[in-house]
Amino acid sequence: MAKEHPILETQDLTIRFGGHVAVDGVSASFERGSLTAIVGPNGAGKTTYFNLISGQLTATSGTVLLNGEAITRMSVPERTDKGIGRAFQLTNLFPTLSVRENVRLVAQAKARKGFDLFSVAESHVELLERADHVLAEVRLIDKAEQTVAALPHGDQRKLEVALLIALGSQVLMFDEPTAGMSVDEVPVILDLIRKLKSDMDRTILLVEHKMDVIRSLADRIIVLHNGALVADGEPAEVIALPVVQEAYLGKAPKSSETPEAPEAA
Ligand SMILES: Nc1ncnc2c1ncn2[C@@H]1O[C@H](COP(=O)(O)OP(=O)(O)OP(=O)(O)O)[C@@H](O)[C@H]1O
């Protein structure tokens, strides 16, 4: 049997801004159902790497593959259609409509896009059922009737994730998902991310600075430094590396220690 492609892969992915190489030959592959945290000091290239995957930026060289298909030159909407879901970038919430209607409208738009002569258009009831299924998945079903404008911030974020799922996102990307959240909203969103992985087998990429968040969620950590991938492995193994200790805990590596990765690129 042919080997299954990793759901997402970057091969020698590079972007230059003038003379500055912000992402420098990053090769990494992501298995279905995995949760990978991408870490590194400020300016390491984490958000730029995200932008290259989701399409906000186009690589100078290298390739992004989704299910084995090159998406490197595709626009953001094309990548979204293919299954890349970047969280908290949606501006198309309808604040005066209910939570359920918001999800239904996205499910409907998605169904229309996939419509062809041989497919059967889904009925309104089927779309509502689909919407409720997604809302149950993100633990927002009990708020289905509420208008979006009345939702607390944490629930609006859940709804945004629901919309990505309704759009068919296979890879969910979170760039500092707890930034700007109140203390009681943080566990809500962390719990959601955990459930997306464990209950729904989604593939999750997370840019995060907070080590406690990373420890509690990630099953793999990738470290970027000056745009390059310098470490890639299990959380405990990677966190113990001098390069990570230095960047996150302010501990300078001893001169005898070389910041080598278990699986350096
Ligand atoms: N559009 C751009 N034009 C020029 N330089 C850019 C652009 N986007 C990013 N950079 C530069 O690329 C480098 C990587 O930036 P990036 O925002 O990806 O880092 P980061 O690891 O996400 O940092 P932080 O943790 O502070 O968010 C930085 O030096 C930044 O100034």
TrEMBL record:
The keyword Cell division does not apply. Gene3D superfamilies: P-loop containing nucleotide triphosphate hydrolases (3.40.50.300). GO terms for molecular function: ATP binding; ATP hydrolysis activity. InterPro entries: AAA+_ATPase (IPR003593), ABC_AA/LPS_Transport (IPR051120), ABC_transporter-like_ATP-bd (IPR003439), P-loop_NTPase (IPR027417). PROSITE patterns: ABC_TRANSPORTER_2 (PS50893). Pfam families: ABC_tran. CDD domains: ABC_Mj1267_LivG_branched. GO terms for cellular component: plasma membrane. Residues 8-251 form the ABC transporter domain. Keywords: ATP-binding, Nucleotide-binding, Transport. It comes from the Bacteria. This is Amino acid/amide ABC transporter ATP-binding protein 1 (HAAT family).
